[in-house]
Amino acid sequence: MGKGIRYSGEFKQEAVNQVVVHGYSVSEVADRLGISSKTLYGWVKKLSKPTVKRLCCSTESSGLLKLFRQIYSFEACPTT
Q1: Is the pTM of this model over 0.85?
Q2: Taking the CA atoms of the chain, what radius of gyration do you get in angstroms?
Q3: Are residues 33 and 59 in the same domain?
Q4: What Å distances lie between residue 50 and 28, 53, 64, CA to CA?
Q5: Domain of life of the organism in this record (predicted)?
């Protein structure tokens, strides 16, 4: 079985934006771009939620990420 087509991250994000930001239906965007609705639903699920990885790339959120790390390391410490 062969591998499917690989789409760039930019292509995926633009497709998701058409659904999430601009309000087009998943089926409409998928038909227009020549991809399956199932594929686009997967991208929407994965790319429409902010992740820690995305937060660390922003200079505005670097302080917030540092705070998250401090909280996480504090919670991970056993109490004595």
Answers
A1: no
A2: 18
A3: no
A4: 24, 8, 13
A5: Bacteria
CA 51 to CA 68: how far, in whole Å? 12
44 and 8 co-located in one domain: yes
Q: Which residue has the higher pLDDT, 62 or 8?
A: 8
Block residue for tokens 């820690």: 52
Q: Which of 73, 58, 23, 16 is nearest to 41 (CA)?
A: 16
The fraction of the chain above a pLDDT of 90, given in percent, is 51
Say whether both 57 and 37 belong to one domain.
no
Please state, in angstroms and rounded to a whole number, the distance separating the CA atoms of residues 66 and 75: 14
| Residues 40, 8, 60: CA angle, nearest 5 degrees | 95
